[in-house]
Design goal:
Oligomer: heterodimer
Structural class of chain A: alpha+beta
Number of strands of chain B: 8
Shape of chain A: elongated
Structural class of chain B: alpha/beta
Strand order of the largest sheet of chain A: 1-2
Number of helices of chain A: 3
Number of strands of chain A: 2
Chain lengths: 92, 264
């Protein structure tokens, strides 16, 4: 909690504008991208398939998310890479 | 040299488009500009009522475009300013009684005679919206600092991008007390989100309701905070550099803290 937020609580507020701003930034980026849940799912599937064509990844650990802030909008994709042999990790 | 055709729009209904149109129109007329307002909300006529000229309405916009009357006959003259006119909406016709081409033509004709053609856009993004936008060269977006109007404003800004230049924003019904408590999006929040130019902020003000009751818009009431805000908006539209007062009120916050701690 920032100092401003503490003061705002003190004044009887709940600081709900932060929720408003974050929620708006999220829906607006989706609105602007025209990204419906269906399109998002299709994109997720395509990216997953494209990666798996080249390297072995665990589809269950695959994650795609959109990060929105005033400064930037980012699509973040993460996937655990399966290297096959556990021996690749440093052995005891 | 033709006048400026400006559409006042929002997406969301009930945020104060008609009130803004009326106040801006009256304000511009008081600054000696020749102004005509078009009520674009066919079927839901209201601008005449807010302006207090409802008793003078004879013909309406549908009569004009369908040739039932001359354009001149449909111009309702304001009782306060002889350089201010209104073309009322029809209360009985359907939303599609006027086409975008007809609106464009009407606006072009009016721009020859008037300095400002203000078009009060209906809520929504359907035919009435498209007509109002077709008639305009510039846009003013009205929003309140709430989640759904801001989202709808963003949608409208997106739709306008291809046809009109950069729209300008009026943030209406800002409550300074709620902003101070952190329970209302402040001007910077709204601008961060919508990323357009700010034309003005109108504070939440009971005077707007009273003005509506009387048919005498707040811009005529120099004592009200909202009236002063509209006067500043009008002068900015006329090219004056008037700073937008910092209504976020960190000074106010410190004062209130002082009250709590020191009781003064």
């Amino acid at each position: 909690m920032t100092w401003t937020e503490i003061v705002q609580r003190f004044l009887g507020g709940t600081g709900s504008k932060t929720d408003a701003k974050n929620r708006l930034l999220l829906v607006l980026q989706e609105d602007r991208l025209g990204l419906t849940p269906e399109k998002k799912e299709a994109l997720r599937r395509d990216i997953l398939a494209a990666i798996r064509k080249h390297i072995d990844i665990d589809p269950d650990g695959f994650n795609m998310e959109f990060i929105h802030s005033v400064e930037q909008n980012e699509m973040r994709v993460s996937a655990p890479v399966q290297v096959g042999r556990s021996t690749l990790s440093v052995s005891k | 040299m033709g006048g400026r055709a400006i559409v006042v729009t929002s997406g969301k209904g009930g945020v104060g488009k008609t009130t803004a149109t009326a106040n801006i129109g009256l304000g511009l007329a008081r600054h000696d500009r020749k102004v005509v307002m078009i009520d674009g909300d066919i079927g839901l006529r209201n601008l005449d009522l807010i302006l207090g000229v409802e008793n003078r309405v004879v013909y309406n916009i549908v009569d004009v475009v369908s040739g039932r009357c001359q354009l001149r006959q449909a111009l309702v003259k304001d009782k306060r300013f002889s350089n201010l006119f209104l073309i009322p909406a029809s209360q009985v016709d359907q939303k599609d009684a006027v086409s975008a081409d007809q609106m464009r033509e009407l606006s072009a004709q009016l721009k020859e005679e008037f300095d400002f053609v203000l078009i009060d856009c209906p809520a929504g993004i359907e035919q009435g919206f498209r007509n109002a936008v077709a008639a305009a060269d510039e846009a003013i977006i009205v929003t309140t600092p709430d989640v759904s109007p801001v989202r709808d404003a963003d949608r409208v800004i997106g739709l306008l991008q291809s046809s009109l230049g950069d729209p300008q924003l009026i943030i209406n019904r800002m409550s300074m007390a709620m902003v101070r408590r952190g329970d209302m999006l402040d001007r910077q929040d709204v601008l961060d989100i919508l990323a357009i130019q700010l034309l003005g902020i109108v504070p939440e003000d009971e005077a707007v309701i009273i003005a509506g009751n009387k048919g005498s818009p707040v811009v005529l009431n120099g004592g009200s905070p909202s009236g002063k805000a509209y006067e500043r908006i009008v002068r900015r539209m006329l090219g004056e550099e008037i700073p937008i007062p910092e209504l976020n009120g960190h000074g106010g916050l410190v004062q209130r803290l002082g009250k709590i701690f020191f009781g003064s």
